[in-house]
Amino acid sequence: MPQPTDRMPHRPLHPRPLPPRMDERRAGRAVALAVAGALALAGCTASGTGTTATEAAGPAASLQSGEGVLAVPAAQDAGYGRVSGSPAAAAVAASRTFFASAQVAVLASDTGDVAPAAERARALGVPLLLVPGQPAPAAGASESGTAEDGATTDEAKADAAKAEAAKKDAAKAQAAVAAELSRLGVRSVEAYAVPDTSFLPGIDVVDPGSTSVPDAAAQDNADQANAAQASTSDAGRAAVVHLKDPGALGAAGLAAVTATAQAAGAEVSELATADPRAEQNRQFFAEREGRLVVAAGDGFGSTADFGSTAATAAAGSELPGGGQLLFPQRRMVALYGHPGTPSLGLLGEQGIEESIARVKKLAAEYQPYSKEPVQPAFEIITTVATGHSGTDGKYSAYTAVDKLKPWIDAAQKAGVYVVLDLQPGRNDFLVQAKKYEELLKRPNVGLALDPEWRLKPNQRHLVQIGSVDAAEINKVSAWLAELVREHALPQKMLILHQFQLRMIRDRDTLETGHPELSLVLHADGNGTPGQKQDTWNALRRDLPPGIRMAWKNFIDEDEPTFSPKRTYSEVDPKPWFVSYQ
Fold it and tell me: Which stretches of sequence are listed as region Disordered (predicted)?
């Protein structure tokens, strides 16, 4: 077998796709933000009574966003939040968000047309709260669970249990509304089609449109709200965003949330797509940086996810070629290798400017076969697997940050994306990634993990093919996602190299839900077209959702090397990232 060299060539050779055993003669290869509290917006009076239940629980406590309450402790007067869940719970959350106090409120059933109640709340400048309508009797069952109309006893009991659960949910919703009215200091409510108001002791309940409601306090709220709504240029004005389909929030819940927001002087906008970083949304969030923006309904991810992506959109940092999302806005073609080392790949065969010119020419050759822009990229081997243990005993050599900076600087200027590739030896991937944090803060720099070169204790390169647990990859993705959030960076690529299934253990447990990252699985094998296609198809089988595919063309080892046309027409699905070694 070949003897390890100081810097070993990166050539995965395997005669069959994903062989069960290695041929030893060959070396194979990712809110703060939200506020839930009292705002001194028009129609609100900031006071010490504005503390929410979330605040009172302490800074480390939070309620679940699925309950319709903003899932973080209250902040100051700006940030990003989300309301979701049942219509009644979301309406309470909106009231907590936008009102510190109110002497009058509007109450409506969530099962009817809430439009008149919403219009009234906006006119009065007060919150709109919802209560569940009267639960319908269970079909085919009496309250005791006895069968009626031919229903079986088991069916009757199941229906009775559902009815009892609905009653309990309704009681919880009523209790939440009562608690919110108490927090606000409400003295009178105008009730629209509310079947039961007995849960509101001590509060005056009046009929819709009653002339007794707009007393001095209510009229003062209305005047202030109308003035705030007219001041659309007010830098402190809050906003609510929602999608056409609000999900579980439903039409009634969305109407209540938006009416309450507008009653407090906030603006309401419908977005065509949920991600704030999408091109059609970025200007909206940039113009509202420093304000309170609340997402209403499903589709926006968690509160933390929405806060992260909205902050990135507002900050405005862009990827090479523009935009803040990697895919599907573009495809990439890359030179792979190590600067100054031709044996490690095409990137090392020439200097910086020549490499930029070469990869741009290569990307241009792919463009006729892609409807998306094809972007040039570098994949730079940043830590290099070595045949000797080194001073740390890890069999991996670090490339100095200062040596990489000129490449990254020139690439950024030329519109070339850069991926830093790690061959960690006996190191942990996260340990090595953190060494390059300074570079990973750049908007044009992503990360690649190469499990082929991830050794266990006592293993050696070229004796075994390395491997890694999904749990270790998940630690890297969590750290990298947090880095992107902290610095409001555009989406960052995280590539995982693989050509044998066992190289990534427990692959089905990979965390793919970080919106800050785009995960890419790189099919890193060579050989004949049939061998490469077999490996490609095997790697795609049972691939966790949310991971895109990448392809590598080997100039010397493939038999033959695919042309750009063959790569984009015969590889299915068409790879989002193609590298050349």
Answer: 1-27, 135-160
| Helix 303-315 vs helix 470-486: crossing angle, to nearest 10 | 50
Are residues 400 and 255 part of one domain? no
Q: Which parts of 441-493 fold into alpha helices (H)?
A: 470-486
Distance, in Å, from the CA atom of 493 to the CA atom of 419, rounded to the nearest integer, reads 8
Residues 59 and 199 in one domain: yes
Confidence of residue 543 (pLDDT cuts 50, 70, 90): very high
In a 13 Å sphere around the CA of 368, the CA atoms on its Cβ side amount to 7
**C-alpha torsion angle, residues 524, 528, 529, 533 (rounded to 10):** -50
Q: Which residues of 280-295 are buried (b: 16+ CB within 10 A; e: fewer)?
A: ebbebbeebeebbbbb
For residue 370, the one-letter residue type is S
pLDDT per position as a tens digit, 513-533: 999 999 999 999 899 999 999
- In whole angstroms, give the CA distance from residue 532 to residue 25: 19
Q: Running DSSP on this structure, what letter comes out for residue 18? A: S
Q: How many CB atoms lie within 10 A of CB 415?
A: 15
Per-residue model confidence (pLDDT) at position 75: 31
| Dist. CA 139–CA 156, nearest whole Å | 8
pLDDT in tens, 477-519: 999 999 999 999 999 999 999 999 999 999 999 999 999 999 9
Q: What is the mean pLDDT of the chain?
A: 82
What is the spatial distance between Cα 326 and Cα 441, in angstroms, rounded to a whole number? Answer: 16
Question: Are 356 and 471 part of one and the same domain?
Answer: yes
C-beta pairs of 356-365 under 8 Å, 24+ apart in sequence: 356/410, 356/411, 356/414, 356/416, 359/333, 359/334, 359/335, 359/416, 360/414, 360/416, 362/333, 362/335, 362/564, 362/580, 363/332, 363/333, 365/564
Q: Between 478 and 20, where is the model more confident?
A: 478
Q: At what angle do helices 401-414 and 352-366 cross, to 10 degrees?
A: 40
* Among 283, 315, 347, residue at a domain's last position: 315
Place of tokens 């639960």: 135
Nearest to 109 by CA among 135, 84, 85: 135
Domain shared by 438 and 373, yes or no: yes
Structure-token pair, residue 519: 């995960």
State which of 260, 284, 315 marks the end of a domain: 315
* H helix runs in 231-351, sequence order: 250-263, 279-287, 303-315
Query: CA angle at residue 417 from 411 to 332, to 5 degrees?
Result: 130
Q: Are 131 and 110 in contact (CB under 8 A)?
A: yes
> Are residue 527 and residue 435 in the same domain, yes or no?
yes
Enclosing domain of residue 365 = 331-580
CA distances for 502 relative to 21, 196, 439, 464, 507, angstroms:
10, 62, 31, 12, 9
Alpha helix locations (H) across 68-152? 87-98, 115-124
Rounded to whole angstroms, how far apart are CA atoms 433 and 423? 11
Rg (CA), the chain: 30
